[in-house]
Specification:
Elements (H helix, E strand, L loop, with lengths): L9 E4 L14 H12 L3 E4 L5 H11 L4 E4 L4 E4 L4 E4 L4 H14 L2 E6 L2 E4 L4 H10 L4 E2 L1 H7 L4 E7 L3 H14 L5 E6 L2 E5 L5 H11 L7 E5 L5 H6 L2 E4 L5 H6 L2 E2 L7 H10 L5
Helix pairs in contact: 1-10, 3-5
Length: 274
């Protein structure tokens, strides 16, 4: 299918490395592109590993009030607060994950009822707060196990990509059938309920909005975007995307810093340029 023959009704975007540089404001060129797409009748929404509270300001900045996919698909909730779908890690699994990380000497943080918790306010915690533009709660290891209600994900932060991959393999073996770990960036191993992903959330959202999957386009750059990109009717990789992401996508656009997101909207949604 050529670019001009596509009828995109739902455009789903990753955040970090796609719509915006990590922790930065949304570029005005991207806001303008979203607004033109919305004016043309297209639903533009977000699918991110971020917590709802951290994704909300971005959705507000681009001027949409639609269901946004957060916590790697565990929570679909509109900007105005309506919950469309939620899938939490069972409380006993959260406690076991915290104990497992503690025993292995790993940094871990949890998210209970859209609040961020960590055992100690370490350099990793401080860096995360700065990048996500939010403040968490230092509660100790026992405190992490006390806040187990509505935990959408547990995050293990490593020192580098190799360590992250190793920990993901360990977690998926130790918690097979109880939780699933995925990589969202080189240092992040995100642990969610089995079956939860951006892809599963995208399918649920498209069905709720009564939009055929062939009229859905997804755009992203990282490993945790892969299933979503494969599930969408059409897929776009950022120029800065990982090689395996580019290989899985129908199209590739420019880098995040060079207007790649706006290019995707203009080419595939608005058909304004080749």
């Amino acid at each position: 299918m050529s670019e001009k023959d596509m009828n995109i009704q739902l455009f789903v975007t990753d955040l970090d490395g796609t719509l915006l540089p990590t922790g930065k404001d949304v570029p005005q060129v991207n806001i303008d592109a979203v607004q033109r797409a919305v004016k043309a009748g297209v639903t533009v929404t977000i699918a991110t590993g971020r917590m709802y509270r951290a994704a909300l300001p971005v959705a507000q900045a681009i001027g949409v009030d639609v269901p946004i996919i957060t916590y790697n698909g565990a929570l679909i909730k509109s900007v105005s607060g309506e919950i469309y779908d939620e899938n939490y890690v069972p409380e006993d699994v959260v406690r076991d994950l915290v104990d497992f990380a503690h025993e292995h000497g790993w940094y871990v943080q949890t998210y209970s009822d859209d609040e961020l918790y960590f055992a100690e306010h370490t350099a990793k915690a401080i860096a995360y707060e700065k990048a996500q533009v939010l403040t968490g709660h230092t509660v100790g290891w026992d405190g992490l196990k006390a806040h187990t209600e509505k935990v959408a994900k547990v995050l293990v932060i490593s020192d580098d990509g190799a360590q992250t991959d190793e920990r993901i393999a360990i977690l998926n073996e130790a918690f097979a059938g109880r939780a699933k770990a995925v990589r969202s960036n080189p240092e992040y191993a995100e642990v969610v309920y089995p079956g939860v992903s951006k892809a599963s959330a995208l399918k649920k959202l498209a069905a709720k909005l009564r939009i055929p999957i062939e009229n859905v386009m997804a755009i992203g750059d990282a490993n945790n975007d892969l299933l979503m990109l494969q599930a969408a009717g059409h897929s776009v990789a950022m120029g800065n995307a990982l090689p395996e992401v580019k290989a899985a996508c129908e199209f590739t656009v420019g880098d995040c810093m060079d207007g790649g997101f706006a290019e995707a909207i203009e080419r595939f949604v608005l058909h304004e340029r080749k």
